[in-house]
Amino acid sequence: MTDRAQERLDWEALAMAEPLPEGTVIADLTLGGVACETVTCGPVQGRLLLLHGGGYVSGSPRTHRKLAAWLAQIARLQVITPDYRLAPEHPFPAGLDDALAVWQALRADPGPLALAGDSAGGGLALALMLAIKERGLMPPDSAALLSPWADLTGQGPSLSVRAATETIITQDGLNGAARDYAGEKDLRHPQISPVFADLTGLPPLLIDVAGDEILLGDAALIAAHAQAVGVVTNFRVWPGLWHVWHHAAGQEPAADAALARIAQFIDSHRRPV
C-alpha cells in the first residue's frame, strides 16, 4: 500500500469514528457517473454541493461526513458530497471534470442550489465556477469557501509569515500535493490556481479563513480579486483559530458560529423556487 493510500484510510477511519448530529440520514447515489454521498439532518429547504478538501490527494465524503451533517442541520439543506477522483492517480482535470459532471446532473433540477468547499475543495469550487461560466451553465446561487487553497505555486504571501502559527498543514505538504495534482500542467493555470483567474461574473461568495493559518493570503487575494470585479463578497478572518476549524462543529463554539453564518448567507442568496 502506498503512503497516499494509507493516509486516506487513516483519515477516513478517524473521521468516521466521530459522532454525527442526531437525526442524520446518509445515502449513496450516483450523479453524472460520479459516486456521491447525500446527507440530511432534519427539514430541507435547498441543496448544497460540498467539495471536500484534502489537497486533491486525499479526503472523501466519509472524511467530510460530520461537516456535511452539521451544515445540513444548521442550514436546512441536503448536502451532496462527490467522491471525485484524486491525484496522483488522477491529476488535473480529473477532479474538476467529476465536479462538473455532478453539477450538471444536479442542475437538471433548477431549484435552490449552493456550493461550498474547504481547503483544496475551496479551490476546486472556484475552478468549478469558472468552468460553469465558460460553458454558460446555470451558476450556484452562492458559494462558501472555507480556508480555500487557491494558489498552488507555493508563492502565497502568508506561507512563510504564518508558518510559526500554522498547526494543521505545511508548505512542504502543499508543494507535494500541488505537484501531484497539476501533473504536467502549469501551476498558474487559472483552474488549478484560481488566484490567477478572472473572477468576473461569479455568484456571491462567502470566504472564511483563520488568522493564524498559512492559507490566509490565498483567501485574502481571492476576496480582493472578487471585490475588484464587482462580485458580492463576504470575507472574514477569524483570529486564534486553525485551518478549516468548521470541522469541529458541535464541539467548538466558533465552528458553530461559522456554520450559522454560512447558513444565513446561503439563505439570503437562495434562488426563489
Structure description:
This protein is 35% helix and 17% strand. With 273 residues, it is α/β, with parallel strands linked by helices. It has an eight-stranded mixed β-sheet, sandwiched between helices. Strand 5, helix 4 and strand 6 form a beta-alpha-beta unit. The radius of gyration is 17 Å and the shape is globular. The protein starts with a helix and ends in a 5-residue tail after the last helix. The mean pLDDT is 95. Belongs to the 'GDXG' lipolytic enzyme family. The active site is at residue 119.
Helix and strand run: HEEEHEHEHEHEHEH
Helices and strands: which structural class?
Answer: alpha/beta
Overall pLDDT: 95
Distance between the termini: 48 Å
Strand arrangement, major sheet: 1-2-4-3-5-6-7-8
Q: Helicity range of the residues?
A: 25-40%
The fraction of residues in strands falls at 15-25%
Give the low-pLDDT segments. none
Helical region count? 7
Overall body shape: globular
Characterize the largest beta sheet: strand count, sense, and whether it forms a barrel: 8 strands, mixed
Oligomer: single chain
Number of strands: 8
| Radius of gyration (Å) | 17 Å
Indicate the topology.
Blueprint: H1 3-16, E1 25-31, E2 34-40, E3 47-51, H2 65-75, E4 78-82, H3 94-106, E5 113-118, H4 120-135, E6 143-146, H5 171-182, E7 205-210, H6 216-228, E8 233-238, H7 253-268
Parallel strand pairs: 3-4, 3-5, 5-6, 6-7, 7-8
Antiparallel strand pairs: 1-2, 2-4
Protein name: Acetylesterase
Family: Belongs to the 'GDXG' lipolytic enzyme family.
Organism: Neogemmobacter tilapiae
